[in-house]
Design a protein that fits this description.
Radius of gyration: 17 Å
Number of strands: 14
Largest sheet: 12 strands, antiparallel
Structural class: mainly beta
Strand content: over 45%
Helix content: under 10%
Distance between the termini: 43 Å
Shape: globular
Length: 174
């Protein structure tokens, strides 16, 4: 294909879920175009994104809902799961965050964000089917039901318990 898919080279994001007294975290995957600066994503795009667990081969396809609009994006934040790795249920309106670059006349690139409602199809346990906390995932670009390009694998943590403690009001973070 003209454009492929890769893991976005951006600072890692995470999602957190409260489980009793524990905070449970998962790193959030982000997709980016490979071979072009942007990729068309949305209701009228000819492709969707798939996340595949390379250990278990479980996968989920992320399909933009009808009438959501279509955008030229340089990043798609795939936050369709919570800190425990459970997929967000349909009644919670799963969505993704799109980063849309716009070039000004002087060459400056401004980025705006847009949320896009999606439908999830595939294995509900794509993030919870592994025995280990850290597992490798790859992204796929899907056209007409066929994966036409895949990213490299990326190791992420899913469902790890953590917390933040603060013992003063001032300090330097290094």
């Amino acid at each position: 294909p003209e454009v492929g898919v890769k893991h976005a080279e951006t600072p890692a994001g995470s999602t957190v879920t409260t489980n009793g007294d524990d905070l449970v975290f998962s790193e959030v995957l982000s997709a980016a175009p490979d071979g072009q600066d942007t990729i068309e994503f949305g209701s009228d795009a000819d492709h969707t994104i798939e996340i595949r667990n390379t250990e278990t081969d479980a996968s989920v396809e992320i399909i933009p809902e009808a009438d959501e609009g279509t955008y030229d994006v340089d990043r798609i934040r795939l936050d369709v799961y919570d800190g425990t790795g459970e997929l967000r249920p349909e009644d919670a309106d799963p969505d993704v965050s799109l980063t849309i670059p716009e070039e000004e006349d002087d060459g400056t690139i401004n980025r705006t964000n847009e949320r896009l409602n999606v439908t999830l199809e595939g294995d509900d346990d794509v993030f919870t089917s592994s025995d280990e906390t850290f597992t490798e995932f790859e992204l796929g670009l899907v056209e007409d039901g066929t994966v036409v390009d895949t990213s490299d694998e990326r190791l992420i943590g899913v469902g790890y318990v953590g917390g933040i403690e603060q013992d003063s009001t001032e300090d330097e973070v290094t």
